[in-house]
Amino acid sequence: MTYSDAIDFLFESTPMFQNIGAHAYKPGLHTVTALSEAFGDAHRCFKSVHVAGTNGKGSTSSLIAATLTAAGYRTGLYTSPHLIDFRERIRIDGEMISEQEVCDFVQAYLDKNLGLAPSFFELTTVMAFDHFARHKVNVAVIEVGLGGRLDSTNIITPLLSVITNISKDHTALLGDTLPEIAAEKAGIIKAGIPVIVGEADGDVRKVFADTASARHSPITFAQDSLPYQSATAANAIRYTSTPYGDIDCQLTGSCQPHNAATALLSLQYLQKNGFEKINADSVRKGFGNVCKLSGLMGRWMTVSDNPHVICDTGHNAGGWEYLGKQLSDKSLGHLHMVIGFVNDKDISTILGMMPVDATYYFTQASVKRALPSDELRRIAGHHRLHGLAYTSVREAFEAASRAATEEHGESTIFVGGSTFVVADLLSQLADFD
Q: Which residue stretches of the chain have pLDDT < 70?
């Protein structure tokens, strides 16, 4: 089996959320439990940290994993979705799983002839666990795919559960209200296992507190427990008065102080519970080099200085509460917004958070779920957002680049709306490299 064969099987022969949305979501753990058992229940061979949340779970997972790597622990990291290469999802100390190992796992699955018909995510999850066990990681940071209670990753029993925050996303699957969504995320809380929650107020906070109490799980809210100061420095956010001293973090989005607080509190817990090598030096190195040490991409990421290009994978109202404010920074100059969405998301709230004085390049990503750019342009017009429609991210980005280059004065190209729009941009830039 070639790598191309393996990827074709994963993308085309297993139901994949990226392509077909909710129809790929398989609630329940029966299939993944049986699949895991067929591969020796590899998740029982290593310690883990489980991270859920509507927004920020990728950044928080990466900060924790990067610091563990910097401290000298062999650290697995499982995240989703990928942006350029499937192998981004499964890493050890920042290094992606090899193409050969992907091939070997898919072939082993086919040879077993289990008759299970797993989803893409179920198969990928067990592949990650198998990879981490084979390479004898000391610990793995496992990001939930969607929800928590019925997510494939929820077969693990971690050292620590982490929930970053709650906002409305995937409501058709997780519930229409914030407490309903919180209840699904709270499903990762295991009996007696401590849980750290980043941000939660009101009824959402009560859901987490009640669930933790019922399961006798100690709970800590990062927003209460870890005060520190933050200020933007050169290409970084500087955190002062932390338990690890002053820290410069490579992630500069305005949402990142909340993720940093959650990650720092998680690291404090781990340091006190078997990971004594975590110290101020490893935290500074992990936070300062998080993208290199974890492979994280697409979080308020500068991809070019001339023209100035920023991309961000924020794709729901909770993420755009921060992005909308950050894009209002006058130092960015005139904004050229390359924007696209998937067709099963309520985008009205998000569009209402976008700057009306920008030039828009409405586009569609190269996935089956992409909302047609003409339809996006029509909807955006109701929110006083105006521009032209383009049938590919490449075409839209090239138009924005031409306009920004010809413009007098400061200007910034922003690319986002959907994770898959950012993925198409980064794939395009990788082709140029």
A: 15-27, 168-175, 226-227, 234, 431-433
Q: If you ran DSSP here, which 8-state letter would residue 97 be given? A: P
Q: Residue 303 has which token pair?
A: 């991809």
CA dist 315 and 143 (Å) reads 17
Lay out the sheet containing 47-52: strands in order across: 95-96, 90-92, 75-78, 139-143, 47-52, 160-163, 195-197, 219-221
Tens of pLDDT, residue by residue over 172-194, are 456 578 999 999 999 999 999 99
Structural domains in the chain, sorted by start: 3-294 (3.40.1190.10), 301-432 (3.90.190.20)
b/e map 222-234, b = 16+ CB within 10 Å: bbeebebebeeee
Whole-number Å distance between alpha carbons of 261 and 253 = 14
Give the separation between CA 415 and CA 101, rounded to whole angstroms.
33
Q: Give first-to-last CA distance, the chain, whole Å.
A: 28
Q: What is the pLDDT of residue 170?
A: 45
Distant-in-sequence, close-in-space partners of 302: CB < 8 Å, separation ≥ 6 = 235, 308, 309, 310
Evaluate if pTM is beyond 0.90: yes
